[in-house]
Structures are given as structure tokens and as C-alpha cells.
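The instructor's notes for this session suggest beginning with a concrete chain rather than abstract definitions. Hand out the sequence below and ask the class to guess, before any prediction is shown, which regions might be ordered.
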Amino acid sequence: MMTSCAVEHRGFAGGVLNTVVQLGSGIGIAVEYTVADAVTRAQGTEVAIVDALSKGYGTTYWIGVGLLGLSALVAVVFRGLWKMQGDAIEEGNVTDLHGAALAKNAVPERAADV
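After discussion, reveal the predicted structure:
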């Protein structure tokens, strides 16, 4: 994916990608903890603590599985769109912002060419 960026933009793209991964991980852990805590507390005092914790952690596990499936679906869809864009470039059906036809694997030599 980084090779699809112009050389002068790769550092910025890498920084954005790293930031998104770090924020996503932190927010994901916070949400999972909050859900586990809410489900565990909702069990009340009449349920053994081990059973309440198991229910809370089990709920967050299934939420994680659902998000993993959603992520895989999004990846497949975007991969298909990426392939369609590549096919369009090969056929010469895509232009840049200035109306010039894009060649396959064309990388602008300088920022003014973008």
C-alpha cells in the first residue's frame, strides 16, 4: 500500500497509518473493558463472581469476533475496489486531477505533478 503513494508522501502516509493503528488499539481496549465491566456488574450479587466475569469476558470476545469479521469484509471490499481501479488504469480509463491519462505504475516525480 505504501508503494502506491508518491515518494515524497510516504513518510506522512506511514505516520498516519501508525497513528490510526495506535488509536484504534487504545479505543478498542477501552470499549472492550467498558462492555466487560457493564455486563459483569449487570449480573448482580446473586451470581458467583466467576460466572459474572465469564459472562462479561465472553461478551467482549464475541464482540471482538464480530469486529474481526467486519474488518475482513471491509478488507475484501476495498481490495476489490483497488483491483477495479488498477484494471481501469491499465485500460487507460482513469485520469489525474489535470485530465491527463494515468499510466500503470505512474508515480509523479515531484509534488507539483500531483
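Then share the key points. DSSP finds two helices and no strands in the chain. The radius of gyration is 23 Å.
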